[in-house]
What does this fold into?
Amino acid sequence: MCGVFGIFNSEFAATETFYGLYSLQHRGQEGAGIVVSDYDDEKKKATFRIVKNFGLVSEVFRDERLLESMKGRAAIGHNRYSTMGSAKTSQNVQPFLVNYKSGHLALGHNGNLTNEKPLRKKLIDEGVLFQATSDSEIILHLIARSKATTVVEQVYDALTQIQGAFSLVILTDEHLIAARDPFGFRPLALGMRENKDKHGKKLKPTLVVASETCAFDIISAKYKREILPGEIVVIDKDSLETGEVKSIFLPKSEKKARCIFEYVYFSRPDSTIFGESVDKVRRKLGKNLSHEGGMKPIGDEKYVTVISVPDSSNTAALGFVTESNKQGSAARLELGLIRNHYVGRTFIQPGEQERGLKVRSKYNTVRGVLKNRRVVVVDDSIVRGTTSKMLVQLLREAHPKEIHLRISSPPITNPCFYGMDFPTKEKLITNQVGGDVEKIRQELGVDSLIYLSMKGLLASVPKYEDEKGSYCTACFSGNYPVPIEEATTDKEKNDE
It folds into this structure.
């Protein structure tokens, strides 16, 4: 999870990073931070400033004077959602900032390293002192200890030693560097804003990188392209003259492993990730779900009432209804659930009672829409099942005739070790019932339950014909593209 943002050549770099992180708030709500670089051309020296803390971006930077004090034309930012390293340790809040032999080095990381344990042991044996329990700090140490001459070579050297998922933003005295692992697990995009003075004269552009393109829109930057799997993008003063970035590539992986769950749930629908519109993919998910789990009106019904679980399944529900009507099965999308947007995500809330309160504070029913109706509820996924069960109980209180649940992804059967915070296998409802969908239906208390098939899922996402494999589906299939023997489990994370 987590969101990363970087900007180069902005008069208000810290403020624009704040707004970029604000757009990426859905990717992490535990902590936020910004590092800004102020380079003095005459002294050939950079001054770095950092502010980070627990909480939402708006909470960390509630005092506007913080941003005003962070002078500089380059910055990186990070929204944290802990998938490795204790959520209670302030040292784990990113970005990380150090001073080493080649100058300043700040880093923000989205993803999980699968060889974290052996790397950490090796570094500790060599006398390295760790301040955080996050795997991201390992990357800093590897860069700092590299024997390579230049900063870019040091970064390359470090990234060839790590395995797993990483989308990185790195700020040095003279560079903004963005990098993505060779498998391309997590998204990362490059954008640019053309600048003009008050007379309309063209100025040097502003270059930006972000986990999702919605972070470009808020600062009026344009999406240029996806940062490719295995690509290290180097942005410096030369980039401002040409408008182009420098790229070097890590050793190539023939197989790619883009996280398919980004399309299902995690990314915002107004973003472009992996080179494709999330909205477009989610509509396809809904359409394919309609083919596999659509319903026809019965008796005197004029149409089937369809509702989404806002906000992540809104677009899939639109696709479901559109395709149902196209197939001759009359359906109408209704707003049966209203979401309170001031409540955070619920599927990782600790404790069943707390999660129940979260569901009720997050959603409320529109009773007139649901009463005496057969209702199809479109949702994106079921993890533990606890939230879904409580949501069904909430819907029952509005007295619908029937509740039919349709999920726009296959059953989640395995935890993620590449940066998506799913619980251990034992806590997943699918495994608790031995994969029996009928038992899940009974547990949730719905009249019918249909998941989108793996075939339907893969038919909904972009195709990459020249690749042996394009997506990571491990959470659905158990096929892990990178070995996970050394990966830290969710239990170990929570015990830290």
User: Anything to note?
Assistant: Confidence is low (pLDDT under 50) at residues 345-351, 486-496.
